[in-house]
Structure formats: C-alpha cells, structure tokens
Amino acid sequence: MTLQYSGTIAFQGEPGAYSHQACRDARPGMEVLPCRTFEDVIEAVRKGDADLAMLPIENSTYGRVADIHSLLPTSGLHIVDEAFVRVHINLLALPGTKLEAVESAMSHTVLLGQCRNFLQAQNINRITGADTAGSARIVAEQGDPKVAALASELAGEIYGLDCIARHIEDKQDNTTRFLIMSRTPDLKKRGQGRMMTTFVFRVRNLPAALYKALGGFATNGVNMTKLESYMVEGSFTATQFYADIEGHPDDTNVRLALDELRYFTSNVTLLGVYPADPRRFT
After folding, report:
1. Which among 13, 6, 1, 3 has a CA at the least distance from the CA of 158?
2. Does the reported pTM lie above 0.85?
3. 178 carries an active-site annotation
4. What pLDDT was estimated at residue 234?
C-alpha cells in the first residue's frame, strides 16, 4: 500500500513540471504549490505557506542544477529526504493528432537536446520554450495540431494533450535527484536502508588543508558520494565545499571523520540527515 502524506509541498515551475512529478511520486497526497523561482520555493516553506520544498540538485546527464548549492546553506531549511526521479520525455499533442502530422516540437532547450535522435528520425523541427510544462500549456492554448510539446505525461493530463510518443529520450538512464527540505531537521535514523548526511564546509588557509580535512573519511571507512566546490560571494579566494556521505553522524566512523574535518576547517554546517533513496544504489 502506498503511504499517503498530508500538508503542502512547494516546487519550482508550472503544474506538470518534472518537479511536480517528483512531488507526486515522493509525497503522494500532499497539496502542491507551484513557485516561480527556487528562492520562492524556499521562502514559501520559511513563511509557512508550504510544509516541504522539492528542489532538484543534480541530473545524471547534465550535472548539478545551477544556483541550488549556493542557496542551501543560507536557506534556513533542512534536508529530510531525497528522491530520484526518472526523466521520461513524451511527445504531447492536441487530442486526435497523429504523429505524422507533427511538424515542430516545443520544450526547454535541455529536453530538446535529449530527444535529438527521435526528432531527427521523425523530421520534427525544434522550438525552444521557457520550460517543459509551460510548453505543453502553450501547445494546448494555441490549438495548432502541427505543433507538439516535449514534457511529462503529467503535463499531458493537466493540459488535456494526448501522448502520441512515450519515453523518446536518447538516454534511457536519465535521472534527476531531488532534495526534500523542511523548516525543522529530522536527525533520527529512519527507514530500513542506509542513511545519508549532507554538509558544507570551508577549509582553513593552510597548506594541504583540503587533503587533510578529507583524510578522516578515508581512514574511517566513510564513503563520500559527492564533493562539489563553489565560490563564496564571488570571491576567488573563498571556497565552500558541499559534500554527501553515507552514514549517520551517530555512527562511530562518521563521528570520528567529522571530528577530524572540523579540526582543519573554519566552518562546518550540517544541511541534513536522511534515508538514502533505494534507487541511489541501482
């Protein structure tokens, strides 16, 4: 039986966006709140207009999502879960439209690039839209059967479009990882699987400081699954690092590794402790 949730979850984009799909998959039963920007999503949770935020952080094909890493440390929110969502791209058209009648497809430039083989094979021209769900809405509003949209099946349901070609993406493993964030942290060990811990840190201005700071994870057998660096406030000398590790801060090996990390850093901020999505390991 699928667990049902209550409350409201905010996401960036229009109804039918892939972030909307992530909300439906990971938190079924929750009301959704579409927001214009990632900052608006965070602010909606901070103000109490939503209980949770659904934020994309990285894609298996295109890497990290711009801006998210710099927003998380100052958001005031805490990661309480993660969700891996397969990005299935579909060709959506006006009801009754046949595939051979479609001359152009509209979508975000990223999705257009992910369906290049299909579009070339069908001799379909590409039209760049602002986003995926917005393109589906425009196709529905314009009423031109020669123009279709590339988007989720959910977008087709919302805007009354037929799915005339399913799962047409070139790469069949295209997946986006989302973080689910809350105003209050949940540091308990939860679920039956492994736990993840996410934090940001800045190293001291010492020779080989990063090497020494990370050494504790190797010597204590802690698996670091992600390490990203980015500039702080536009400075070329101030660098902050974002890291994901397997384990819980109460685990002895994780605790020892974090203690060693703090010795060589000027700041360590815990962003969240949460169950690993089972799809992380498949």
Report:
1. 13
2. yes
3. yes
4. 62
| Given the residues 178, 199, 201, 217, the one annotated as active site | 178
**199 belongs to the catalytic site:** no
For the residues 58-77, what does the mean pLDDT come to?
Answer: 86
Digit-coded pLDDT (tens) for 235-245: 666 678 999 99
CATH number assigned to the domain covering 195-281:
3.30.70.260
pLDDT at 221: 97
90-165, which class in CATH? alpha beta
Topology adopted by domain 8-87+174-182: D-Maltodextrin-Binding Protein; domain 2 (3.40.190)
Q: Is the pLDDT of residue 66 over 80?
A: no
Domain residue limits, the chain: 8-87+174-182, 90-165, 195-281
> Given 97, 176, 197, 265, which residue is catalytic?
176
Q: Encode pLDDT of 79-94 as tens digits.
A: 999 999 998 999 999 9
Segment 52-63 mean pLDDT: 90
